[in-house]
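Working notes for the structural subgroup meeting. M.R. asked for a predicted model of this chain before we commit to crystallization trials. I am recording the input and output together here so anyone reviewing the notebook later can reproduce the run.

Input as submitted:
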Amino acid sequence: MRKILFVLLIAGLVFTVSACTPEEEAPIEEDSAPEYQTIGTETTGALAFLMTNGTGLVITEMAIKDALAPAYPAGLIEADTFIETNETVRVFFTPPADVATPDETVTDSAADGDDERAINTLYNFLFTFEDGSTMELYAVGLDVLDEFTVRYDGEVLFIEYVDPETNETVNTKEAAHAHRAALEAEALAAAEAAAAAEAAASSTYTAPAVENVAPAPGGAATQEVEVCLDGDNAPAVNF
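Returned structure, recorded in token form:
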């Protein structure tokens, strides 16, 4: 009888210990950071930013330059690589060593006073699309923007981003249209100046000089006459 009671007691203790032992909780998996396609090469001094293609077109090539530089360098997108519509990519761009020093300052009004942020350089983008067409995006402050979306309204490219101070979505559409209008006006003025210079050059004609000819016996001497056409095409006679 004692042996039976002893066995029952031991079994009860084992059950009690098993019941009180907490079960191991499964580890909670943290949300992993989204993976983005990488454009460009990460180097010391490279500007890094996230760019979303909101143009509605597939981007096949992209080059970036200082807005004051005369020409674009080689593109950043490798062969057989594309930026699909609505795709976000991580871009690394290393500015050339001779990039201009800070040339513009933006002052934002804040509750505690004026907050001045220096924009080191503004950058232009040259995009090539799947259909072979190209378009430029002007004056992007990569020194103060780390994420933005490129938009296309059928006429110009512009960017859309969240202002870190107001948390509001803003865009550069109006500025992009103003910049395009300024470029068109500049091109028109240059064309008109070239046309005026060409017209002025072709409106003046100088006849070749005529040598004096010895007079015939009993005749009058021949004078050299130079005929010019002035700007109004009216003949001017010089003796």
